[in-house]
Each structure stands twice: as structure tokens, then as C-alpha cells.
Specification:
By secondary structure, this protein is α+β, with helices and mostly antiparallel strands. The protein is 18% helix and 24% strand. The chain has 2 helices and 9 strands. The strands form 2 sheets. Strands 1, 2, 3, 4, 5 and 6 form a 6-stranded mixed beta sheet that branches. The chain has a 3-stranded antiparallel beta sheet with strand order 7-8-9, with no helix packed on it. Strand 7 and strand 8 form a beta hairpin. The longest helix has 17 residues.
Length: 173
């Protein structure tokens, strides 16, 4: 978990992140933060700050999944690396929907910047991790798998690991 609200300690936080990941190699790296590097438009300033200050570090350390909140919608952006899709090196950014009364839609200007979005709240997610797959599934307040109101598609996604259990630094080349 990274405290992205207090931006005063950015360099210390980055050093902590590097040390933590380098000393704890694992197959999966999942980061939690309040704001995320993707936005529905309402908190675009915070998302831009997050992408600018953390995005390249997440790519360098092959982060699999960044989970954030701050926006009160479900948002997902898959496999982003150097601002482009890259199935091998990309980071998946996920904004988990709120489980409270705040509810607003996605701003039109941002709908094409994410892979999937859903405006409704009152959802909870589960994350299941095995050696070969990480699965995120959203459920509604009745405990049923939640579906996207526009597409009808179940709100779930899967990732495969980037590492076999050790960390390999990736370069642009």
C-alpha cells in the first residue's frame, strides 16, 4: 500500500517500494493506492500525478496489478507500458468501485481512455491468486456476480504472472 495522498514523501516512498520489492521477490506484485493512474475524469489531477510519479517505477518492477479507489466507479486499463498496450510488460490498473452512496458517471472525455468502466457502486470484489492466474471478480449487494450495465458482460478479469518468482529488470529495448 502506498500513501498517495501525502505527496510530500515521494522520494522516500519510492525508495521504500524499491527496497521492499527487491528484498521480497515473488511471482505477483500487487500495489494498493488511494488514487490510481487512470481516471473517470473527476480526479484527473490526482491520476496524472500518480501516472507521472509512479508509472515508470511500476513498469520497471513489473507490477502486475495496481488497485486504487478515489473515483467512485469501476475502471480497468489493461497492460499499459510506456502509455501503450503491451501484453508482456504492461501494468493493469484497476479502480475498485465504492460500496457507498457516492455515485457519478464517467466523464465523456475519459471513456475511451480505459478498457472497461461501470458507473454503479455497491459492489465488492474478490481476488483469487494461483501460480498461473490472478482473477478479480465483482459482486453486487445481493452477492451475485456483477455485470456491466451497458454490455451485460460479467465484471471479472484475469491476469497471468510476469515472473516465475524472481524479479528481472526490464528496459525499453
Amino acid at each position: 500500500m502506498i500513501d498517495t495522498i501525502n505527496q510530500k514523501y515521494l522520494s522516500e516512498q519510492k525508495e521504500w517500494f524499491r527496497t521492499t520489492v527487491e528484498n521480497n521477490p515473488s511471482q505477483w506484485i500487487i500495489v494498493g493506492s488511494h488514487a490510481n493512474a487512470i481516471t473517470g475524469g473527476w480526479y484527473s489531477h490526482d491520476s496524472k500525478w500518480m501516472a507521472t510519479n509512479w508509472g515508470s517505477l511500476f513498469e520497471e518492477y513489473q507490477v502486475d496489478l495496481v488497485i486504487g479507489g478515489h473515483e467512485h466507479v469501476f475502471l480497468r486499463k489493461d497492460t499499459l507500458y510506456n502509455n501503450e498496450k503491451n501484453a508482456d510488460l504492461g501494468v493493469t490498473y484497476y479502480v475498485s468501485p465504492a460500496a457507498q452512496h457516492k455515485q457519478y458517471g464517467m466523464k465523456e472525455d475519459y471513456k475511451d481512455t480505459v478498457d472497461e468502466y461501470e458507473n454503479t457502486n455497491y459492489k465488492i470484489n474478490t481476488i483469487s491468486v494461483t501460480n498461473s492466474k490472478l482473477t478479480v471478480t465483482l459482486y453486487n449487494e445481493a452477492g451475485e456476480k456483477a455485470a456491466n450495465s451497458r454490455t451485460g458482460k460479467t465484471l471479472t478479469f484475469e491476469l497471468t504472472p510476469k515472473r516465475s518468482g524472481t524479479i528481472t529488470t526490464q528496459k525499453d529495448s
